[in-house]
Amino acid sequence: GSTSGSIDMELLKEKEIDRNRLQCGQLLGEGAFGRVVKATLTPPEEVDLEVMVAVKELKDDDDPQARQALLRETCIMLLCGNHDNVLGLKGICFRDGPLQLVLEYAEHGSLLHLLWTLRAESKLNRTVLVNKRHIFENMMLEVCCGLEHLATRRLVHRDIAARNILICGKGTAKIADFGLARDVYAVGYHRQDRGDALLPLKWMAPESLKNEARFTHKSDVWSFGVLLWEVAQLGRTPYPGIDGADRIYDALQNHFRLPRPQLCTEERYQLMLKCWKFNEETRPDATTVRKLLKADPNGFF
Ligand code: ACK
């Protein structure tokens, strides 16, 4: 049956790409299990109409668990469907060679990268922050739109963070990296089935820290609050000095929250605190967060 996290080979076959159409180039980056390279994709007929793509492949293509995980990630992206604020999937190569996931190319890389660049620029000239504020406000609205789309598709991302928001040409923000994403059961949450997964502890809601099975749209909203904090902190890492799920959980339960960044208004910090309501029932959904952001367009910097 079509249970959560299953791999639907029929669905994958419809998206098969002949790997001869790919020409791989420079390395864009590496993660724990995979790497991403820049490539060009030649359309089946018109040879002169190449498009830039990003190709995700495994570091160890012989690892059956890693292959399963990448195939599942592909199926999740297919379930997600097209949306302007979700990174597009072009297709997958799985025959006669290594698995290669062919993704939309994000010209400007990750939001985290962009924030680091902005931090360096702002040291030389503080005015860039105010000049670029609207760009980041807009990106956060776009991420909310992406989250709203995921909710309509009953998908929980589980790894919303600046490193996983990619910025395409024209500055459009797209939710990427569905490696931890899952489709939701009717009850609204599901069981962790990959014991070795590296979990993004500092972005996780308390209910997910307590019970690694419990991820919902509301835990994605918690992570979105941490993402807002990352933007206001120009890409700094949350909770320096606190490590381990138990210690973070205890701190949150004792009402400790990430401190207010200097580069945001009190109102924007209040919005972060709403995303970090301990009780998920009282947290706003992505639509409400988007409206609150929209009503306060000068919250950063
Ligand atoms: O921050 P970055 O430059 O943007 O470094 C990471 C790295 O690969 C590891 O994930 C970059 N990356 C991932 N997917 C894409 C993509 N579709 N287009 C462009 N860069 C990408 C990411």
UniProtKB/TrEMBL annotation:
Its EC number is 2.7.10.1. One of its GO terms (molecular function) is ATP binding. Residues 22-301 form the Protein kinase domain. One of its GO terms (biological process) is cell surface receptor protein tyrosine kinase signaling pathway. One of its GO terms (cellular component) is plasma membrane. It is a single-pass type I membrane protein. It is found in: Membrane. It catalyses: L-tyrosyl-[protein] + ATP = O-phospho-L-tyrosyl-[protein] + ADP + H(+). Keywords: ATP-binding, Disulfide bond, EGF-like domain, Glycoprotein, Kinase, Membrane, Nucleotide-binding, Phosphoprotein, Receptor, Transferase, Transmembrane, Transmembrane helix, Tyrosine-protein kinase. This is receptor protein-tyrosine kinase. It comes from Branchiostoma belcheri. The lineage of its organism: Eukaryota, Metazoa, Chordata, Cephalochordata, Leptocardii. The gene is LOC109463447. The chain holds residues 270 to 570 of 584 of the full protein.
